[in-house]
Write a structure and sequence with these properties.
It is built from twelve helices and 16 strands. The strands form five sheets. A five-stranded parallel β-sheet has the order 2-1-3-4-5, sandwiched between helices. Strands 9-8-14-13-10 form a five-stranded antiparallel β-sheet, covered by helices on one side. Strand 3, helix 3 and strand 4 form a beta-alpha-beta unit. The longest helix is centred in the middle third of the chain and has 56 residues. It has 404 residues and is an alpha/beta fold. The protein folds into three domains: 171 residues, Rossmann fold, CATH 3.40.50.2300; 135 residues, 2-Layer Sandwich (Beta-Lactamase); 49 residues, no CATH class. The chain is elongated, with a radius of gyration of 43 Å. It starts with 5 loop residues before the first strand and ends with a helix.
Amino acid sequence: MAEARHVLIVEDSMTQAFSLEYLLSENGYEVAIATNGLQALEMAHLHKPDLVVSDITMPIMGGFEFCSRAKSDAALRDVPILLLTDLSNPDDIIHGLEARADGYITKPYEEGFLLNKIRSLLARRNEPAAEEESGEAIEFTFNGEKHVITASRKHILDMFISTYEHSLAQKRILEQKQHELNDINAKLASSIDNLKMSEERFRSLVETVPDIVYRLDSDGRFSFLNSAIERLGYHRGELIGTHFSEIISATEVQAVSWQSAVANRGERTPPTPPKLFDERRSGQRMTAGLEVRLKTKSGVTVEHGEVKPLSHSPLVVEISSSGLYGEGSEMRRNYVGTVGVIRDITDRKKAQDALQHEREFLEKLINAVPLPIFFVDTHGALQRANSALFRFFGLDAGSTLGLR
C-alpha cells in the first residue's frame, strides 16, 4: 500500500483550515496545519511535506513571503506550493510569480478542482527532473509598481497555465450557478403566477361574500376592503389608508382599539380579554363576536334586490378578527396587520328586541289576569306563572319555578 502523501496547510482561519483538513484527510492525505508562514517554515524543516496549500494574508508572515523563502531554501524548493487567494487584486498573480508559486486557487474553491490540482502538482513532482535554466531577471512595471521575476520560463508557463485552468474552472462554476439561478428564477416566476392566480381566486371568493371583509396594516389603517363595504354607503377607495376608527361610533373606539384597550394598560391585565377591531392575537385567542356600531353614510344600498335608503344612524355589526404575522412563532414574528369579517346584525338585534318586548308584554298580560295561570314543560316542571298563582298559594316565585 502506497504511503500517504503529506500536505501542509498554512491558514490562520481555523474554520477554513479544519474544513480543508477534513477534505484532504477524507481523500487519503496526511495533513498538518500551520497558522502563519513562519510556523510553516519551521514545520516544513522538521517534516518535509509533499505539497503546501497556503493562504496569502496571514499574521507574522504572509503567503507570498513564505513561498519566496521556501523556494530560496535548498531543502524546500522542490516542494509544490499552491496559494489560496480571492484574486481580488490582479497584482496577486504577479506577486505569485515573484515568489515562484506553483499555482493559484481562489476561495471559496470547488473541492473537485482543488483535489485535481493537488494531484497534478504531486504527479509533476514525481516526473524525472529536467535541467532547468536559471532564467534571467525580468524587470517590468505593473499598475505603477516595479516587479522583478527570476523564475524560469517553464515555471512562468506553468504558472500561467495554472491560472488559465483556474479561469476555466471558475467559468464552469459560473455557468453552473447561472443555470441554477435560471432554474430558480423559472420556479419563482411559476410561483408568482400561481400566487397571482390564487390571489385572484381569493378576491373573487371574497367579493361574493355578503359580509364585509377587511385587512388593516400594522398602524390600524385599511389596506383591503371588499365591495360589501358599499352597503354602509362608502366606496372602498375612499377608506383605503384610513384608520378604522373613522367608521366606528366615537363612544366605542376606546374599548375596541388595541392601543387603548391593551397597549396603554402597561402590565395591568383586564379581568376578561378585550375584543378588538385591530386584533393582534390569533388562533383560539382571536376576537370573535365583537358587537359595535359603525357609522354609515347617506345614500342607497341594495339588499336582496331591494333598494334601501341609508341614513347617518349607526349600524350594529358583529366583528371577528385575527392578527397577521410574518414567519416564525407568534411571539417572535413581526406583526404586519389584522384581517377581519364584519357582519350586519341589525335585523337580528331588532328581532331580539322585538322578542324581548313580546315577552315583557306577555308577562304584563298574564299578571293582569286575577285567576292563577301557569305553564309547565313536558316533564311537568313549572316554567312560568302569574302573580295571582303565587298569591293564591302563598308561594315564592324564585323557589317554585322549576318544581314539579
